[in-house]
Amino acid sequence: MSQLNIKGLVENIRTRTNVYTPIIEAIVNAIDAIDQSGRKDGKIEIIVQRSNQQPLNLDSSALADISNIKIYDNGIGFNQENRDSFDTLYSDLKIEKGGKGFGRFMFLKYFESVKVESIYKENNNFWLRTFNFGSDKKIIDEEIVTKLDKTNEKTTLFLENIKENNLDKKVDTFARKILEKLLIYFINDKYVCPKIIVGEEGKTDINVLNDCLNKENGEIQKVLFEEFILKKDGTSEKFQVKIFKIFYPHNQKSKISLVAHNREVTEVLLSEYIPEFADDFFQEFENQDKTKTKKDYIIKTYVLGDYLDSNVSLERGDFKFSDQNSLFCDFSQKDIEYQAAEITKKIFNEEVKKRVEKKREKIEAYVNNEAPWNKEYLQDIDISAMPYHLDNEIIELEIHKAKFKQERIVKAQVKNIVDNPESKIDESVNELISKISKAEMSELAHYVALRKTILGIFKKSLELGDNEKYNQENAVHNIIFPTKKDSISAPYSNHNLWIIDEKLNFTDFVSSDKPLNGGGSGRPDLIIYNKQMMFRGGDEAGNPITIFEFKRPQRDDFITGSSKEDPVDQVIRYVNDIKEGKYKTPKGRDIYVASNTPFYGFVVCDLTQKVRDWLFKTKDFKPMPDGMGWYRWYDNNNLYIEVISWDKVLRDAELRNKIFFDKLGI
C-alpha cells in the first residue's frame, strides 16, 4: 500500500480523548476478536507494570507510576485477513460493528511504542505473528511470522512507555475506570461479555470486572433502563437510556455519556441540565452487625441508539452532529442530553425536590435578612435553573434578571395601552398598575435598606478606631457629603445630606470644602444654596444660604484657639464676606444678597463639658430642650446658628427612618 505520514496523523488527532482511550480501544478490539472466534470461554487480562523510577516524595508506601500495560486475549488473533485489515487505513472489515479503521493511531498518541504478539490458527496450522506499530511511514513494522506446533490462540498487546502519565496509580481505581468505560458491555441482556481481569504484574490480587455488577451492595448498581423518541420534521429516532449508581466516586461528578458502538464517546455534567446533581448522593446500607453505613454515589446516565452509532466521528471522540440545534442535523447533542437528563431527574425526583427546597430556603434567607427590597420578586425567580451552590452574588444577579424581565414586559404593555387609541381602562390595566407599583416599591425598599447601612457606617465613624483614636473630621464629613465636591461632581445619589436634615435633599446646589472665590479664599465645610446660582435668574434675594462646619468627634480645643478655629466665628465670617460681595457665584457672577436674605449656620461637634460652658458663658447660646444642641439668633446678620452634637445627628436620623426600617423588618 502507499506509505503514510503516521506521525502527522497522530499529531492531528484533536477530539476529546485521554490516556484511557487507547486502553479501551484495545480491550474492545479483544472483545471483537473473541466474538469473531465464537468461543464461549473468552478471557481478557489487563496487566499493569510500574516504572522503575521511585516517587519523589520519599514515602516508602507511595506507588510508582504505571508505565507499561499488557493486554492478553484468547480471540481469533491476527490471521491474514485481520492483519491485512489492520494494515489498511480506514479498513471496513468491522464496519458493521462501528469499526473505523483509525483507532490504531490512538495508541501512538499516548504510548512511545506498541507491539503485538499474536498466536492464531489458519489452514489447520498455528502461527505466531509479531510486529510493531509503525510510527513513521508503515502501519506494520518489523513483522515476523513463525509456524508453531499445536498450541492455543493468544494475542498480547504491549503498550510501553506512556508519554503523559495521567493514569490512576492504584490498580483498584484503574480497574474501576476501565469498568465504567466498558460498562455498556456488561449491561446488555442479549450479550455475554468475555471475562475481563485487571491485575498488576507480580501481584496475586486481581479485579474481575464481570463480578462487580453482581455483588450485593456493589459499587456499581443498575437503576433504570428506558427508551425515548425524538421527533423533528417528520423524522424520529429511538434512544435507550441506562442509568447507574456509581458508589465511592472519588471526586467524580454525575454525568450523561453518549455511547456509540458500545464505546463511551462524550460526557457532560448532569448539573448542566439539572443543577441539583452538582453534589454526590447518599444511600444508607445495613451492615451484618445491624449498624448503618452511608455510601456516597453519583449518577451515570448512558444513552445509546442507531443515530449515535451512525454519527460518531472517525476517532470516536466526538459526533458529527452539532452541540446546538442546526439546519444540517436532525437532532443536536443538547437535544439528546436534555431528554436523558429529564428522565434521570424523574427517577431521582424526591431527592431533587429536597435540594430545590434547600435552594429556595437559602434564597429566602438572603432576601429576608439582607435584601428585603427584593421580596416582591421571589416568585419571579426561576429557582430550578439556578446553580445548586448559591452565593449572595448569584442570587442578586438572578433577582436582577427577574426584575429586568418584568420591567420589559410592563413597558411593552404600557406602550401598547398608550399607543392604542382603542385601549380601555379595565381590570387588566389595574393589574398592570400593580406591577408598576411593585417595581417602585422594590426600589424604595432598596433605598431605605441602604439608609440603614449608611447609618451603621456613620455610627461606626463616631467611635474609637483600632488605634484608640477618633476618626479625622474628613472621615465623618465624607459620609455626609464628599469633600472637594459640589452638586455637579457629586450628584444626589452620592451624598447623604438626609442624615442632617431631610429638607437638604431638595436643595439645588451644594459646595463641600471648596474655595468660595477660587484660590485661597474661605472653604466652608458645606455651603448650601436653596436654588442653584450657576444659571441666570437663580440668584435671588430670597434665596436662603446654609453653612455647615464640622469638628472631629470629641475635639474641643477650638474653644481656646484663634478665631480661625472658632466654628461659630467661621460661620459669621462667611456670612459677612458674602454680604460684602467678596464671593462670586459658581459662574463668576456677583451674589445678590438683600437685607432680608436668610442665613442658617450649623456647627456639628461633640458637646463636651468644655464646649457647653463655652457656648453658654462666652457665645451666649441657649440650650435646646433635648439637651443635645444649642442655638442663637443673630438679628443684625439675619443669621440663625445651631451647635448640635454628632449623637443628636445620628439619633434624629435613626428616629426619622425608624418606621421605614420597622416596616422592612431590618
Question: What structural class do the secondary elements suggest?
Answer: alpha+beta
What does the main sheet amount to? 8 strands, mixed
CATH superfamily of the largest domain: Histidine kinase-like ATPase, C-terminal domain
Mean of all residue-level pLDDT scores = 80
Total individual domains? 4
**Apparent shape:** elongated
Task: Give me the count of strands.
Answer: 22
Strand order of the largest sheet: 5-4-3-6-2-1-7-8
What is the helix tally?
A: 15
What ranges have pLDDT less than 50 throughout 5 or more consecutive residues? 92-101, 531-539
Q: What is the CATH class designation of the largest domain?
A: Alpha Beta
> What is the fold named in CATH at topology level of the largest domain?
Heat Shock Protein 90
Radius of gyration: 41 Å
Classify the helix fraction into a percent range: 25-40%
Q: At CATH's second level, what is the architecture of the largest domain?
A: 2-Layer Sandwich
